[in-house]
Amino acid sequence: MAKVKFISFVPWVTIGSIIGSLFIVPMMPKIVDALYYKNKYNNDASQAYQKYIDSCITIKVVMPSYKSDKVLHNCDKERFPLGERFKVTYDSKKYFSNPSADYCIFFCSEYNKCMNIISFQNVDGNYWEKELILTVNRDDMNNPEYGTKDNPVPVLKAVGVSEPIWFSGKDTDSVFMDKFYRNNVINYLKYKMPKEEFERRFKSKE
């Protein structure tokens, strides 16, 4: 009986709160990361990027003006944002460590398709009203599911024809741009391309 009386005085709620605050709560980001974020994205992108690049072609276009309604951000900022951040961890303190991409979504008159110039590295420059050479994937260009407003053709490399795009002029450095392009493709395949499509295009025939 004495033992039962003693147990009744033990502050179980308090003990549970202490255990939760000291052990469970700090472990939550690691638990969620292991269960959810570990396989959320296409982790084999670094093995698939060369196949994507090998199917790419270059096209020449003239970009619309910044204020043009051909720039889809001007038509609907909610549907066509200027960028996106990809969450790779449950830990809110690491929000700014999550990878992000800048978007330039526009209607291309030359090919009658919507396109999205995607950059996972900040391009401090200007595309507007310039003649550009865009690198696009041939399969994407030939796929009728690409080129719509909601699913524009991804453009992972853009350089100026007669003048640089980047204010720094880095886009005239072929070595730098080759590295930029490779990293851009890997990040696009890993974070942006839908998992089902990645599996179908790069893993189904292995």
Automatic annotation (TrEMBL):
Residues 44-202 form the DUF8188 domain. Pfam families: DUF8188. Keywords: Membrane, Transmembrane, Transmembrane helix. InterPro entries: DUF8188. It comes from the Bacteria. The keyword Membrane applies. The chain crosses the membrane at residues 6-25. This is DUF8188 domain-containing protein. It comes from Prevotella jejuni.
